[in-house]
Amino acid sequence: MVGAQAVSLLVSDDRSAFYGVNLYGFQDTLCDDRGNHFFKDCNIRGTVDFIFGSGKSLYLIRVITSQARESESDDTGYSFVHGKVTGDAKGAFLGRAWKSSPRVVYAYSEMSKVVNPAGWSHNSQPERAKTVFYGEYKCTGEGASPSGREPFAKQLIEKEVQPFISLDFIGATKWLLPPPKI
């Protein structure tokens, strides 16, 4: 069907690593479904929720997301480190509360003016503002200004961000191999 959404990649296993992959879609480009994943030097493009699911992943890429953690006890979430948020749109959210307790962190990321000044969305469900974990740490660029951010989003301090910016976030020190040399 012309104009319909279609997933470009579905990742449902544990301990997957992606290097230099380009994924293009419109809505729901990457379904980061479940398991621990690592993405480095990848380009993932889309318009709406183009990274979504219940995985626990460390991204060193460009992104905007919709994470699907349903409970604070679920050990899932997305961490975007040293990435870029760019595009042609206006008013893009860094994440929206697709499910009740999403957990998403951006650290050391460059954010262009494409980012909505509010930064984040509770998805028209104000009660989710109490259960989301949205954090930012030392981000730069026109879209990174903390003034105007939703009150439920946190500007993290170093101690709070540490668990999210380490390979230990996804247990990768036990399974991640260096990328192959091609």
TrEMBL record:
<dbReference type="InterPro" id="IPR000070">
    <property type="entry name" value="Pectinesterase_cat"/>
</dbReference>
<feature type="active site">
    <location>
        <position position="49"/>
    </location>
</feature>
<keyword id="KW-0063">Aspartyl esterase</keyword>
<dbReference type="Pfam" id="PF01095">
    <property type="entry name" value="Pectinesterase"/>
</dbReference>
<protein>
    <recommendedName>
        <fullName>Pectinesterase</fullName>
        <ecNumber>3.1.1.11</ecNumber>
    </recommendedName>
</protein>
<dbReference type="InterPro" id="IPR011050">
    <property type="entry name" value="Pectin_lyase_fold/virulence"/>
</dbReference>
<comment type="pathway">
    <text>Glycan metabolism; pectin degradation; 2-dehydro-3-deoxy-D-gluconate from pectin: step 1/5.</text>
</comment>
<comment type="similarity">
    <text>Belongs to the pectinesterase family.</text>
</comment>
<feature type="domain" description="Pectinesterase catalytic">
    <location>
        <begin position="4"/>
        <end position="171"/>
    </location>
</feature>
<dbReference type="InterPro" id="IPR033131">
    <property type="entry name" value="Pectinesterase_Asp_AS"/>
</dbReference>
<dbReference type="InterPro" id="IPR012334">
    <property type="entry name" value="Pectin_lyas_fold"/>
</dbReference>
<keyword id="KW-0378">Hydrolase</keyword>
